[in-house]
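Closing statement on the protoporphyrin IX containing FE sub-project.
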Amino acid sequence: MGNTKSEVEEKIRQLEEKFRLSGQDLGSYLDGLLYSRYLTYWDYIELDTLLSLQKTRTHFPDEKIFISYHQITELYFKLILHELEQVFEKEDPDADFLVEKLNRVSRYFRILTESFDVMIRGMDRDQFLRFRMSLLPASGFQSAQYRMIEFFCTPVENLIHNSVRDRLRSDNTPESLYELIYWKRGATDQVTGEKTLTLKQFEEKYSHDFLELANKLRHRTLYDKYLSLPAHQREDQVLRDAMRHLDVTINVNWSLIHIGAAQRYLMKKKGVIAATGGTNWEEFLPPSFQRILFFPDLWNEQEKKHWGKQWVDQMFNNKPESEIEKN
Ligand code: HEM
C-alpha cells in the first residue's frame, strides 16, 4: 500500500530536517536516489566475493568441504566476538543483558558443535590424509578469533596452564602471563618438546595484537562483568546456568567434538599419524588435560577436578549417564 500525499510530504519534511541538521542539501540526495540502482541480494551479501574464497590447494574434491567449513566456523566466531565486544563496551551490564549475550554465544557454539559432523564423517579419510599434507604447517590451532573469544570471556589468569596456575605470583606482568598461556604448550614437537613452525608463525603474527587485547580487556572481560554484579544478581539461577552452559559448550562440548575429528583422521591402530607435523595434539587437546574453564567461581572443586571427564566417559565409553560420576 502506497503512502498518502500528506504522509509523503511529512517524510520529505523529516528528511529536510535531517539533512539540514548536518548541513546537507536534500535536493542532491534526492537526485542520488533517483539515479541509483535497486539493491540486489547478491550485491548486498557480496555473493561473488564470498563464493570466490574457497581456493583449494589440491585436486582432492573433499578439500572443498574442509576449507568451506573452516570459513563457516570463522564467520560464526566473528558473530560470537560481535556479542562479546558489546559486553566489553557495556558499562555495568545487568543480569538480563548478560544472559541474552551468553545465550547467543552458546547458541553459536552449539550450532558449531552439532555441525562438526561435517568434519568427522563428511570427508573421505584417505583424501583428508593426503590433502592435509599440502596444507602444512597451517592448523586450526592458528585461529586468532578462537583465541580472542577466550580473551574476551575470561582474564588471562584463567587461561594459564593448570600445572602452573596455582603457583602464579601476584607481580606477574601481562607479558609474563601471556607466556604461560595454555595453548603455548600445544603445537610443540612430540619428540623434542620444541615449538613447531605452526606455533612460531602464529606468535609472530598475533602476539602483539593478543597482548594489546588482553591489556584492553583487563577487568572488563565477560567474567569480570559477572563478578562486578551485585551479589543478588550474581546468585540469579538463570544467569548462573547461562554462564555454566557457555563454559561447558565451548570448553568441553566443542573441544571434545573437535577431538573426535582428530581421532577419526589421525589415529591408527598403532600410534598417531604425523599429519599435523608431529605435534603433541593427543596430550594437548583433551579438556581434562588443559582444564581450561572461563568462570571458575561457577564450579565447585569436584567439578573443576573432573573437568571434561564426565563428558569424555559419556562420549567415548558410551556409559549411560547414571553410571557416570556425577559432578
Ligand atoms: C578434520 C578436521 C580437523 C582436524 C583433524 C583437526 C585437528 C587439530 C589438531 C591435531 C589440533 C592440535 C594442534 C595441532 O597439532 O595442529 C587442532 C587444534 C585446533 N583446531 Fe582443529 N582440526 C580440525 C578441524 C578444525 C576446525 C573446523 C576448526 C575451526 C576453526 C578447528 C580449530 C582448531 C582450534 C581452535 C585448535 C586449537 C585448540 C586449543 O587450543 O584447544 N579445527 N586441530
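The chain has two domains: 5-36, 63-323. With this model delivered, the sub-project is considered complete and its resources will be redirected to Aim 3.
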